[in-house]
Amino acid sequence: MAIQRMDNVLIVVEDLDAVIAFFEELGMELEGRGPIEGDWAERVIGLRDVRQDVAMLRVPGAPGRIELARFHRPQPITPDPADAPANTLGIRRVMFAVDDIDDTVARLRRHGAELVGELVQYENVYRLCYVRGPEGIVVGLAEEIG
Length: 146
What we know:
The protein has helices at about 15-25, 40-45, 100-110, and strands at about 10, 30-35, 50-60, 65-75, 95, 115, 120, 125-130, 140-145. The protein is of the alpha+beta class. The strands form two sheets. Strands 5, 6, 7, 8 and 9 form a five-stranded mixed β-sheet that branches. Strands 1-4-3-2 form a four-stranded mixed β-sheet, with helices on both faces. A hairpin with a 5-residue loop joins strand 8 (about 125-130) and strand 9. It is globular and about 50 Å long. It starts with 8 loop residues before the first strand and ends with a strand.
């Protein structure tokens, strides 16, 4: 048995609209949005009395999705520290290849994004940076050079 694909990454958020707008500015498309609750959801995620809103965004014309969830019940748990550094255990960022990193950073800044470090060049291969967007979500950006 072989793995077929990576389907999506889940990010739990408080302000679903702001995070959707951030990822749409990055270039993702909203695939769908709606409420989730009931026995099946509780059984699959291992929580009781679940009520949440979810949104699925996709990379246009390519594989890759991000699922966003806003929990109403049970209350979401805030990590400590909220803006964890890159060496914190767990998932730290999602990386996207972009065609114009300067333009992408400028557009994301209008949604509150800030550079985590610097925009750097790796040899003659990539220009790279991390940006921290709404709710501390870290997105890596890579522009291939040449």
